Amino acid sequence: PAPARSSVPFDRRRRSLAARGRDCRQPPHSALAAAMLILCIGDLHIPHRACDLPPQFKELLKPGKIHSILSTGNLCCKSQLEYLKNLTSDVQVVQGDFDEFASPENLVVTLGEFRIGVLHGHQVVPWGDHDALACIQRQMDVDILVSGHTHEHKATNVGTRLQINPGSATGAYCSFREHVTPSFILLDLEGLKATVYMYQLIDGKVKVEKLEYTKPGGA
Fold this sequence. Notes:
Helix content is 17%, strand content 32%. The chain contains four helices and twelve strands. It has helices at residues 10-19, 55-60, 78-87, 130-140, and strands at residues 5-8, 36-41, 68-71, 91-93, 106-111, 114-119, 144-147, 154-158, 161-165, 183-190, 193-202, 205-214. The longest helix is centred in the middle third of the chain and has 11 residues, at 130-140. 37% of the residues are buried.
């Protein structure tokens, strides 16, 4: 079944989480030991195209709140990798085309009930094309594919699988995109359900969109 897309303003999401018995100042997994919160982030391009992450994002991303990090690469300098490792010990990074340190070209991880594939995306032609990504997703045999490079955040159901692009967390310049909105994605995994929270910084304020995906055919 296709996930239903809905926009969730930041203040409404805080209220909805509180109504579910969770601390609205904490990420969605804080009250459920069985759930996992996964940060998907990439294309920082620090220091070449951006100086740092937006302070509004840094305020949200605190140590001890995130289970794992999946990075689509182009962090560029190794200090940004160390910053991510300060948030959680489980950090998985793939090689971007501008990274100054070596990482795997792609990777597959199992988190909860989900097989998740990660690659930067510059290898995909055309860049960001859903059909080309779906071909790679089938080859990797993953439920969720996380890719970057386009600097445009997306979460899209393709058949019975999910494709995610966290965009650029710094809003870094992109030669084929006129305007880049700073963004990242949080995946809240619980059983066969994945809730995607897409964070964007618009006019100095954090906005959140939500998409829910359920893995079909699970036990």
